[in-house]
Amino acid sequence: MDIATVDHLLTTTRSVRKRLDLTRPVEPEVIERCLELAIQAPSGSDRQSWHFVVITEPELRLGLAELYRQAFARYRASGPAGPVTPLQSSADYLAEHFHEVPVLVLFCYEGRVEQAGPAAQAGLYGSILPAAWSFMLALRARGLGAAWTTLHLRYEQEAAQLLGLPPSLTQAVLLPVAYFLGDDFQLAKRTPTVERTSWNGWGRRRAELAGRGEDEGMYLSPVRAERQRDQTDWILSPLPGLATGNEIDVHARLGMLRAVDGFVQQNGLGG
Ligand SMILES: Cc1cc2nc3c(=O)[nH]c(=O)nc-3n(C[C@H](O)[C@H](O)[C@H](O)COP(=O)(O)O)c2cc1C
Questions:
Q1: Whose C-alpha lies nearest to ligand 1, atom 13?
Q2: Does residue 20 have its Cβ closer than 6 Å to ligand 1?
Q3: What value does the mean pLDDT take over residues 232-236?
Q4: Which tens digits make up the pLDDT trace of 208-221?
Q5: Do residue 141 and residue 243 come from a single domain?
Q6: Is residue 271 part of a domain?
Q7: What is the per-residue pLDDT for 192?
Q8: CATH (domain of 73)
Q9: Does 15 sit in the ligand 1 pocket, CB within 6 Å?
Q10: In this predicted model, what pLDDT tens digit does every residue of 80-132 receive, in sequence order?
Q11: How far is the CA of 91 from the centre of ligand 1 (A)?
Q12: 244 CA to middle of ligand 1, Å?
C-alpha cells in the first residue's frame, strides 16, 4: 500500500463548497462506483440497512435546497455577530448555490432512534456515517468533492415527503457532490490529538505513563507528578521471569495503582 498517497487522501478530504464545479456534469457511474466502495464500511451486526438516495432531478434538488436554505438561515441568524469568517463565507456560498450542485446524495439508515438510548443511537449512526465518509474519500480520489451537511435535517420529514421516503428511515447526512476545481486541498488546522487523547484513564497522557514526556506533569500537581514517575518506574520495571513492559503484567500493575489512587483520593491523602 502506498502510505503517502493514503495519508494524503485522509488529510486532504475536505468539505468542498466554493470549489464545486457547478457546470460540469457528474457521470452516474462514478456515483455508483463510489457507493460500491462505500458499502465496504462497517454496519452494526453487518445489517447493511442503509439506503442511498441519489438526487439529480432539478426540481428535487431545488426542493431540498429550499429546505436547506431555510435551516441555514436560522442557523446563521443564531451565530455570533462580527466579520464573516472564511468558513461562514464558504457555507453562505453553498447555501446560495445548493440547487446548482449537480448531484445530491442522501445517506439513510433503516430505523428510528430518537426515543432510544445511546447504544441504539450509536448503533444506527455508526452504521451509516462510516459509509458516507468512505464515499467522500472515494469521490476525492476521483477528482470529485462533497460537503458534509446536516442542516436540512431540521426539516427531515419535509425532505422525506419530497423524496417519498418511508417514515421508518433515518436521514443521516446529505452530500452535495460535484467535480472540484483546482488540483489539491490543504491539510486542515486541527487541535493537536495529544490535547484530546487520554491513555488508561481520563486526562492521562501517554508521555506521563512512560515517564519521559516533555509535557509531563502539565495536568498534575508536582507531588502527584512525582508519585506518577515513581509509579511509572514500578510499572515498567521487570519482574523475575517476565519481560519488561509485558502487557498483561503492565495492565495488572496499572489496575493495582488505580485502586491505590482511588483510595488515596477518597481519603484526601493525595498531593
Ligand atoms: C456533523 C456535521 C455536520 C455538518 N453540517 C454542515 C452543514 O450543514 N453545512 C455545511 O456547510 N457544512 C457542514 N459540516 C461541515 C463542517 O463545517 C466541516 O466539516 C468543518 O468545518 C471542517 O472542515 P473540513 O471538513 O473541510 O475539514 C458538517 C460537518 C459535520 C461533521
A1: 149
A2: no
A3: 56
A4: 666 654 444 344 44
A5: no
A6: no
A7: 94
A8: 3.40.109.10
A9: yes
A10: 899 999 999 999 999 999 999 999 999 999 999 999 999 999 999 999 999 99
A11: 9
A12: 45
For ligand 1, mutation pick of 150, 175, 177 (most atoms within 8 Å of CB): 150
The pLDDT tens digits of the residues spanning 34-69 come to 999 999 999 999 999 999 999 999 999 999 999 999
Nearest CA to ligand 1 atom 7: 149
Q: What is the pTM of this model?
A: 0.80
C-beta of 93 in contact with ligand 1 (< 6 A) = no
Average pLDDT along the chain: 87
Is the C-beta atom of 223 inside 6 A of ligand 1? no
Together in a domain, 151 and 254 = no
Distance 155 CA to ligand 1 centre (A): 18
Same domain, 163 and 198: no
The alpha carbon of 87 and the centre of ligand 1 are apart by a number of angstroms equal to: 9
CB-CB neighbours of 192 under 10 Å: 7
CA distances from 233 to 130, 221, 230, 236 (A): 40, 18, 5, 5
The domain containing residue 17 runs over which residues? 3-179
43 CA from centroid of ligand 1 (Å): 22
Q: Is residue 94 part of a domain?
A: yes
